[in-house]
Amino acid sequence: MSKSLNNRTMGIVCILISAICFTGMSTFVRLSGDLPTIQKVFFRNFVAMFFALFAILKTREKFKIKEGCLKFHILRSLAGLIGVFGNFYAITKIDLSDASMLNKMSPFFALIFSAIFLKENVKPKQAFAIAVAFIGALFIIKPTFSNQNLLATMAGFVGGMCAGAAYTCVRYMGIKGENGKLIVLFFSTFSCLITLPYLIFNFHYMYWWQWVYLLLAGVCAAGGQFSITAAYTYAPSREISIYDYSQIIFAAIIGFIVFRDVPDLWSFVGYIIICAMAIWMYIYNNKIEVLKNTK
Predict the structure, then answer these.
(1) pLDDT value at residue 212
(2) Which of 28, 114, 172, 289 suits a disulfide with 217, CB 3.0-4.6 Å?
(3) Per-residue burial over 103-116, b = 16 or more CB atoms within 10 Å of its CB, e = otherwise
(4) Helices (H), the chain
(5) How far is it, in rounded angstroms, from Cα 34 to Cα 98?
(6) Model pTM score
(7) What is the Cβ-side half-sphere exposure of residue 176, based on CA atoms within 13 angstroms?
(8) Among candidates 291, 72, 104, which has minimal Cα distance to 175?
(9) Cβ–Cβ < 8 Å for 186, 132
(10) Mean pLDDT, the chain, as a whole number?
(11) For residue 131, with 0-12 CB atoms within 10 Å meaning exposed, 13-18 middle and 19 or more buried, which class applies?
């Protein structure tokens, strides 16, 4: 097995694991009840911070940021934090599968940002797929004043956009050889420092079961974060992004079983459009890769 093929396989495995973990995170966040989004975000990253710190200390790796990566750590953390806020707000207000699908716009945004900042080529057919995927997102967002959840769906969409920007930064740092554990630790610590002042002055009392759910959300988030970071350091988004959509299946199943969520017809139309474009783009990208290797 060639190194590139082996890396792609590892990337696929990691992204599937991340999909399962992030579905668990979303479920526990919603189960935690009516708490401020910023409080949920803090606990999500607080647990992940300790996991990342333990992982680095266990392997005795140095806390050294590679040259040229510091600004990308900061950009990744800012974009990632906004993305988590948008995603968490959407999770608490709309169907779990809707929130997950809007968050899964991130691979399309990752392609856009990779083209702009990393100079990775985006072919006309890929650009077409991105444009059609945005149309699919509109079916889920339903941008009309009659949509009572418009703010939540827009927050989910912005969360997906910021997640795409964050993954682009991760991809760049992966190319530079930055330690994936350090990327997670930097983001988690950054997020905790930003949200801690709110918690100090506006902490909302939590029942024991809310503590349990948020800690479990943090554990799942840590697993998902490590996995997604590893995935995008193993392979570019064009090769593995399609497998990230497995989270929609997991979210739809869990959403129905646990919360009795049943998306409306327009949301299903949006799912079909976005997933169809993701599959088409995946097939197209692989054809391009085959043509390159045969030359």
Answers:
(1) 94
(2) 28
(3) bbbbbbbbbbbbbe
(4) 3-31, 37-59, 70-93, 96-103, 106-117, 124-141, 150-175, 180-202, 208-234, 237-240, 246-259, 265-294
(5) 19
(6) 0.82
(7) 19
(8) 72
(9) no
(10) 84
(11) exposed
